[in-house]
Sequence to fold (974 residues):
Amino acid sequence: MSSIVSLLSSWGASASTTQILNEFASPPTHTRPYIRWWWPHGLVEIDEIRREVSQIADAGFGGIEIQDVHNSIEAGTDIESHSHGWATEPWINAVHAALDEANAHGLAHDMALGPCWPVGVPTYGPDDEPAAKEIVLGKEFVVAGNKYDGPVPPPFQEPNDNVNEQALYAVQAWRVSDASTNVTAIPVYLEYGSMIDLAEDVTGGSVSFTPPDDATWLIFSTYVRGSGQQPEGYPHTDPLTYVVDHFSQAGVQPVFDYWEEHLLSEEFLSLISKTPTTFMEDSIELEQVSYWTPGLPAKFEARHGYDVRTILPIVTQYEDEEFLFEFADAESTRAALNDFYDLLGQLYRENHLQPMKSWANNLGVQYRIQPYGIPQMDGIQSAAEVDIPEGESLGFGAVDNYRSLAGAAVMANLSRVSNELGAYSHAAYATTWAKILATVNPEFVAGVSQNVLHGMSYLDAPGSVWPGFAAFTPIHGDEIGYAESWGPRQPAWLHAPDFTGYMGRVQYILQRGVGTHDCAFLRQNGDVDSDYIPPYFTSEGAGVGWSTVFIDEALLNSSAASVRGGRLAPETGNFSLVAIEADPFGNGQAILTESAADTLYGFAKAGLSILMVGDWESPRSYSLGANSSSASIAETVKRLLELDNVVNVAGPDEVPAGLQRLGIAPVVEYDQSALIHTRRKDGDLDHYFFVSNSSSERVDQTVSIPTRHANVVPVQLDPWTGNATVLPVYSVADGRLHIPITLQPYQSSLISVVPLSGPNTQHAVNSTADSVIWEPGTGRLIVRTTDPGSVTTTLNNGETYKTTLDAALPELDLSNWELTVDDWQPADGDGTTGNITATKYVRHTLTLTSLTDWTAIEDLQDVSGNGTYSTTFTLGTTETPYSNRTGAYLALEKFNGSFRTKVNGISLPALDQMALQYDISQWLKNGSNSIEIEVATSLLNRMRIVQPDIYTPDRQAFGLLGVRIKPFSQAYLS
Fold:
């Protein structure tokens, strides 16, 4: 790295640029990925806690996240919660030891605010004010010609354990619509506005009702009670912990009180002050029958101008989170639900999120949340109001969900979007680092800049089997659970430093500066985890250069959302376009609030281009409330569509034509392919992260990038090694860089455009050679080819060079190998009894005359472990020796597993695991050469033997499949 830094300095690169390059080579610890670390309560040993922190540090992670999680132990099983549960003395002592050891290694430390999730503390019961509440319905139908005289319909569902109180909230009668011919069907349609309040008719628990007409009527009752929900994997404490009311400040205060009384000792506060600390909350997985809080009715009327009781059947859920009732008018149903979830979002932010953040920040701690889990609730606004919003690769069915968090981060100027990485369903002990890479690289493009690997389990717990306690497997007691229990128990952990190094360097760049994008796509409700994929922009559009994030109405009206020079948020996202689609979750109806319509019109008048997709001839109000008028919205949209810089297209297929009418193109452009990208503006630097977003498609094309300075040089940053090199081939025309990019499936490329104050640097603009490389240290260009003859290279100064090269040495197919495998097995019996954490390593030594995966080798079919392939080969002859005019690539056929390589006894730097071809020229010599390739597997194949009833997937096929040495000829440009 020193040579490139010196050279760039001599060309006029700034001191800040060279500092960034030096830090990239060895990034700050806290920019590296963290790991989620699961404990079985305080049933841990202090020495083992310290040992595991050291293991995490040695593997290259930047922080720990402590969680009390043991979901592999059947819910309701008490594992010494009274003496060793969450926040008991043994647990606190272990936390102090973990923090102290983390500080010694310079690791950050994050913690959940309570045991498991959702948050709660053991100071109140399920009937008490702080506990989560639910509203549950009862129903009876009165058919035409009859009357009802009987008990108020009881709740359809019994309360959870220990819930002893419930209060009748409403008793109503509703006319069933003629659209419902069968009241046992779901949904049952009701006539909006037909509600008759029967509260005054309730006597002694009974109610009388005579229908006013011959229609079928519904007698509808609701009851409010504690949900009785406990954090996942309960019990964690004695007395029991119940989930807090997330919509009332009565829910957060006990959390503050408990921490301040039991956990925030002087020692704890001192420990967390040494390195960065974050309190985190997992996704909002509330298990109420229907969401409720005592203050909701008054807040609802104040916000929306009408009584929530007039829509109560529509917002009260039935079994399995279904809505039993809808209004016959679908628009009224849609708008009523929008109002209800809009209020829930407001209550969550005002009464839970904001107080939590303020409290944490006052302690010098950041607050990180996963702001989703309640369908239809605005998580984008919540993401913008915390220190670090977080998503997850498990719960997010579409990578576009991250764009919601990214939009919030851009508009709120947050440097980190976190990600719970690698929690794959039914994949415990089956995860490879390649799968992690294929997951995280597209997520980086979608906005992620920090990862928390899921995860690492403490060594042991009651009832565990080999190789030790695993927090998420088996799940439900009898099936393979969630990935993953990383750590020294896993063969692939051997290669963890290579991957944490890669992610840490990418994250270092992606946390710098500000993300800039082309399109701000407006989501009507701001839902984060709905798996929404917009038309064109993140699919076909991303494949030609469009960069898109999602925003909601709150961000549209935020302080950052000004328009200047035709750009929205010019100091942050610098968007050239706002796009919006007729609501795909609202029957395709075009909907807006009055406020959003007015804001869009104002932005368009200020010069911002807007693309509207779908039928916007008759837009409706997002809300049912008195504060929003469909007629007013329709009039505003009509005036909006009359502007030249606003275009309405009928559907996704017409989006490109609409963009052409607007005269807008993405900032970065390339031909249609699997290539996607994200970019960061970092002072005078511009960083670009490209990924081939395909499991099979290779990218080989030229990208066009704008320059902000007259004289620049593109620098290739290698996140695997920390090295940097000036790109040898590119052209500059009309203020744009044109750079060739070649990527294998899911491979990435990180390029920084560096401004220079000195003279233009020499580089090639094109060449008939197979490749051109830039020699570190000298800056000289070298051409390479496998065919003999002359190659022509044109430089940026217009000079053309013809270089004559010799024929390359013959290609070698390496088929004969010695293979040594360490087979990981339980050391004590079959792994289900005895010392279940002890592992033995059974050595297999094989001589191979061809390469095939281990499932085809009888001795290795059920093996998990580490293998070392070794062989020798001869390069060069007396007549045509291997010399500085020759070189060679190591080419690997794609295989399952991670690897490291030695050539002639020298360990190579970490290799890009997605690249498949590697320049090993500098380690080769004329004559005999040796090569070793060390591979690592998952643990699945062995777990299929240890617990065959749990680990039922097919064997995973590990092992090398093909290795070639591909020589080439090379020469300095002359």
